[in-house]
Predict the 3D structure of the following.
Amino acid sequence: MTRTAILGVGHYVPSKVVTNDDLAKMFDTSDEWIQQRTGIKERRFIEEEGIGPADLAVPAVKMACEKAGIEVSEIDAIIFATLSPDHEFPGSGCFLGDYLGLPGVPALDIRNQCSGFLYGLQIADAWIRCGMYERVALVGGEVHSTGIDLSDEGRDVAVLFGDGAACAILGPTEEEGRGVMDVEVHADGSGAKELWIEAPASKYIPRITHEMIDQRKVWPAMNGKQVFRWATSKMPEVARSVLERNGVGVADIDLLVPHQANRRINEFVAQKLELPTEKVVHNIHKYGNTTAASIPLALSEAMQEGRAKKGDLILMAAFGSGFTWGASLVRL
């Protein structure tokens, strides 16, 4: 039976490093305060105006193609997961296809925030299993730095996010045991307003006003306690569901690659799953929360470092705005 394999993974982050001490010069915070609550030491911001997530995705896709041993021209479909698209419309996938010189190649943008890579993986898996496409570029790309409030009022959210992109090239395999074993995703809109940006919005006439800006509706808003509570409940729950459905024990997992939102969340999840620390990937200290890019970025680094290699069983899990959450099992 044809399965979907991860053929290669690549990533790219801007060169501009923004440390916690750098943020402390902009608003009331400290390196100690940020590290204690999030595990973040630094993050990357775009170097100048005019760089969007599709721009960041170009080198990530090229690296992934190189790792996969294919040419960029062999990509026959793009899935672009992002909450920070280059423009309101069209989708960032269309821009990326143009930048890569892929006219006519379909491009699908998905808006599942921190769970976007797993939602995209489920879509790509279905496409490849049914024979629709053979080389799918699944991309997560974000430019958060231009959309956060770098002031005292916005600090609780501003300290969390960074910019970056990552890509997995997916294709069919007949290798016994290799490939995507399962992907399970969920959503519960009752938590939608616990982590969101209210405006601009098409439900308002006009979509944006000076009053909305004055009322801070244009900045991300988060109920941190609720997000933490849901994440530490739903991520281990969906991870266990995927493991049990596939007859896999926790001891069989070679590596857990969780979404990088908060190190404490990931430590809670690993503890609930009874996974030892050495089997959990953490890179939030370097990049902050890169939303849809975080799982493939963490996987790409783990593969570069030799922590994840061919034949390993990888468990991925995420929770994010929506609320959305999910988990997947993949044999590299």
